[in-house]
Every structure is written in C-alpha cells, then in structure tokens.
Amino acid sequence: MNIGSVFQGMATLAWLGFFGLIAASVMRVSRNQPASGFRVGIILTLIAGIVLSSVGSGLVFLQANQYGIVITPLQPKGYREQALGPGLHWVIPFIETVQPYSIARATYTMSQVATEGQVGGDDSIEARTKDGQQVYIDASVIYAVNPVNLIDLHITWQGRYEDNVVRPVSRSAIRDAVSQFGVEEIVSTKRSELEKMISDSIDAGLASNNLTMTDFLLRNIRFSPEYAAAVEQKQVAEQQAQQAKFVVESKKQEAEQARQIAQGSADAAVIAAKGAAEARLIQAEADAKANQLLSQSLTAELIQYQYILKLAPGVQTIFIPSGNQFILPLPAAQ
Fold it and tell me: Which CATH architecture describes the domain 106-223?
C-alpha cells in the first residue's frame, strides 16, 4: 500500500463521518432536539474529507519498475512531455491522472502447449523452409518497455503493444528467417545462425516501436507427420547400413586375424626347420672336429691299452707264447 492509498482511505473515513454527522443532525432536528453541537463536527469532517481526498488524488507513488505518463487537460498535447520515474510525485488533484507502465522484463511465449503461451491452444508458429517443408516453431521473446521513449509508445500503442507489436513482429521474423534455410539445416548445422537471424530481426522490429528485446529463445522445432515419418525411415536405413558396415569390418578383422595366425605358424615352422638344420650342421662339425682331435692323439701304446680294456671283463690271466707280445693280432694303427 502506498501513501496515496493511505490518504484515500483516510478521506473515505472523513466523508463517512461527515455524512454520519449530517444524518444524526437531521434526526435530532426532526425530533425537535437541538443540533447545534453537530455543526463543528460537520464542518471539520467536511474540511478533512476535502483535504484528504485532494491529497490522496494528487499523490502518486510509482514502484521501482514503473514509469508514468501524466494525462492533463492543462497541456496543449493533453499530456506532460516528461514521464514520471519511480518514486512519489504530485499531480493536480481531480484534473491530472497518471497512466503507469511497467519497465520490468516480460516474456511472450508462443507454444504448442496450451498452458505455456499467452494465447490458449496451439499457438506455435507455422513456417515453410526453403525446400518447401512445413515446420512448427515454439519460441519465447523476452522484452521490456524502453522508458526513454515511453511517451511515444503511449501515443502510438498505449497498452496494446504486446498484441499489436510483440506478437506480429516475432511471428513474421520467424517465418521470414525459416524460409531462408533448408529443413535439415535448421535442425543441425545452421540452427544457431537461424536463431541469430530471428533475434536480430525481432530486435530491430521492437526497437522501431519503442520496445527493447532482451533475449530470444527458440524452444522447439517440429515437423509435419509425413516428414517426421520420412526422417524416421531414413534414420532406420542409416542405422541398418551402419550395422552392415560394422559386420563387414568385423569379418575383415577376423580374416586378417586368421591370416596373421597362419603366417605366424608358417614363420614358426620355417624358423624351427632352420634351427634344426643349423643344429645338425653344428653337431656334424663338432663330430668331425672331435674325430680329428682323436686321430691326432692315437699312439700304439694307447691303442694296445684300449684294446685290453675291450676284452671280456672276466679275463684274469693272459698266456702269451714265447717271442709274442699278444695272443691275437692287434689292429693296425693308423
């Protein structure tokens, strides 16, 4: 409650007291009773009613987010050329009035959902893309009254600017921008470009009508049922193609893995064969070397000794004829 309302309330009480005292005075006079004592009260309540009503009518308090246009017959144009800002102001009682305007941010929503927008039912924007596809846009425009140009706004639109400016400017800008893009562009690669184009167009349209756009929200993009079905079929086909490609790649990887395993086995066999051959060659070379060393170390005495060792282990005595060294001929020494 502001101070003007307080004075208006006090004025109402004063007028009620004034008329109550008059009624009581009339009743006393009708009964032939003295009523002179009511005269002072009647005069005081009359004066209080006039003063309080005047003060209450002349005091205007505007909230922190309000500006006001003073309507007055005392000016040639019918209004003061300077708008009132927030705070307490005085205007001529019963002659001048104040039309308040909120400069707080407001949101105008156009949506398919009936409870979200300012207009009931489906209020989304129907637009056609560059390639002829029908789309439906849900959007919100956040705007505010420009206090610098408040008088011009009042003269042109008064309180009708939301329906006569914000709504048509926004819907027209959205349709114009959508018509410059293909349907696939507005939902993927060029959505941000579309939003900027719409935002710039709305900003310019509101500014020319003494309003300021704060933000634009592209809430949702919907397609016609036919196009949505076509998009779904395309996505299914693409998913199937991706799945087939994945299967082919898996088979290729399996074949490559099998080839590498076979190659590894073959390489291992070759390496094993080479190792065996080299081992046999080394063994042969070692045997030949050993034989060479053995042949170089043989003497007649060593051969006789080895020969004796090869005899049967049970032989204890050997009889040798006179003049012979051995019973049996010794093998010829090489």
Answer: 2-Layer Sandwich (3.30)
